[in-house]
Amino acid sequence: MTALLDVVRAQRPGLRVRLGHLELDEPLLGDTLAALPPGEVVLVPLLFGRGYHTRHDIPAVARAARGHHCQLAAPLGPDPLLAEALADRLAAAGARDPDGVVLAAAGSRDPRSAADAEATARLLSARLGGVPVLPGYAGAAEPGIPGALDRLAALGCRRPAVASYFTAPGHFATRCARAAAPHPVSAPLGDHPALARLVLHRYDQAHSRALARG
Fold first, then answer.
1. Residue 213 is inside which H or E element, if any?
2. Do 200 and 164 belong to one domain?
3. What is the CATH number of the domain that holds 88?
């Protein structure tokens, strides 16, 4: 995550950029906000869909932040910039001519999150020239990675690859990579420049909304 923030800072010198986690890692978002001087803050979720964290956890932290007026940006996905980054990561993994792709995501019980993953799959398919792209999930949703690979096989795909739809390495990314063996698996999006551009785009959208409201 810190590498991504470095790219964001390089693309927008002078913008104060800080990292805050909801759980598991530090610093926690609440602590990051508490360390900032009072004022306007834009929160850009490094999440790819409208799941529970985006709709409940982050707004709850924002409401509890004292001395700050927090503007919540939209989640990163779906967006064509994600398809650009995913395609580049697939090529870097050696999957330059797959005939089918599984978009490997964490998974959520929220149907809006699944709809966002499906939209990203369509964007990636278009980016790859119409190659079938099906979402597959590490948990909480179906199909899993093996099930998505089976569906591609039923479509006649013999050279599938797996696109890792994660910002950074972690439990879910590792789980998806293991489930995808022996097929090629791309690295998480990490510090890809297109992902950094998308973070700034979401920031600009939220900042503009805040200015319009006065």
1. helix 193-213
2. no
3. 3.40.50.1400
Q: Are 21 and 29 in contact (CB under 8 A)?
A: yes
Question: Which amino acid appears at position 112 of this protein?
Answer: R
Residue 19: count of CB within 10 angstroms of its CB: 14
Whether 106 is in a domain gets the answer: yes
Q: Print the domain residue range for 134.
A: 80-180
Q: Please report whether residue 110 resides in a domain.
A: yes
pLDDT at 1: 86
128 & 172 share domain: yes
The DSSP-derived string for 132-201 is -EEEEESSSSSSBHHHHHHHHHHTT-SSEEEEE--SS-SHHHHHHHHHHTTS-BPPP-TT-HHHHHHHHH
Structure confidence by residue, pLDDT tens digits, 22-78: 987 899 999 999 999 999 999 999 999 988 888 889 999 999 998 899 999 999 999
